[in-house]
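User: Please predict structures.

Assistant: First:
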Amino acid sequence: MRTAVLSLGLALLCYLHAEAEELGAAGLDKSEIAGKWHIVALASDSESYLQKKDELKMAMATIAILGEGDLKVSFAIPSPGGCKKRESIYKPTGVPGEYHSSDRGNKTVQVVDTDGKTYAVIFASRVEDGKTLHMLRLYSRTQEVSPEITTLFKTIAREKGFTDEMIKMLPRQEECSVDGA
């Protein structure tokens, strides 16, 4: 019985991953990623992230589509000093699902997985002090994600070279929102 449940769970995970790949970057409809998102999980190889990851809480983002395919991303990030709000403009790179921003350093982001409705997995790279840093984020339309999507995120994180110590499911918070950003 236990083996059957595990097999069914693995089959569902494989199905979700295959379906998401079909809808992933190549088939991405930008209108599907527009709107309000909760950043419910992170994985990063940044030293500062690793030092502070236990203090982090769920952040929020709003994605708006601008002319010529640019994306305006507004963030609300809870911190000990209050709610930090930021905005960045990301321009398409020519690679499907990939965008670049020169705001606050050079950053490239890519939608690596999405179902087009409830979640998106975003991989970001930036160069800081001559070193390339990587971050994987799980975006969700709600503050809670299914166990299957959590497992999918962790699987993708491991495939990208992140260890379990680098992966963090973020606790909920209510005090910091993109509304009015």
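Second:
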Amino acid sequence: MFPFRRNPSQPSKNREEPWLAASLRPENFLPGLVIGFLLGLFIDLTASNRSSSKGKSSFPSGKHQSVVSCGNGEELKMVLIVRQDLRMGAGKIASQCAHAATGMYAEMSQRPSNLSSFSHRSLLRQWEQCGQPKIVLSCKNQQEMNKMKETADRCGLPTFVVSDAGRTQVQAGSRTVLAIGPGRKADIDSVTGKLRLL
């Protein structure tokens, strides 16, 4: 593995093999590959044990977090309601939904809470631990979206409306997507339960 050095007292009859060529010979390469693989596997296993033990210690005993159920056994989710009358393409809808989800997240992580049992940050943390479920629904038009927003606001659910910049498919200022939540699944379903999946 190291470069060969000539002993000055011995004359060199054959040309010495470069260190890389000597390292890549099967009798040197295969053991090195096996040792590297085992070392990598060992490092990976110790890192995953450390991260899983940290995860276990951060939750109170007796309460296990899962993708479906969070916190005190309640499911959390966010819904993204897309206006169908704008006839946006699939890429535009995906972009607008991303704006809605990230806009809601940024707003909730910065604004003070007005929820009774959760602060916005702890609600976000629980939603993150649940796998951040997001459901995309559709509404007919701006009026239906406004009704959904008003109802969600009355229920104390966080809302965020995306107003498009108007660079591509829709006019500037068009309200394209309404995000509701994250919040308790039952609360969100009471507002959006009659809407259809996109």
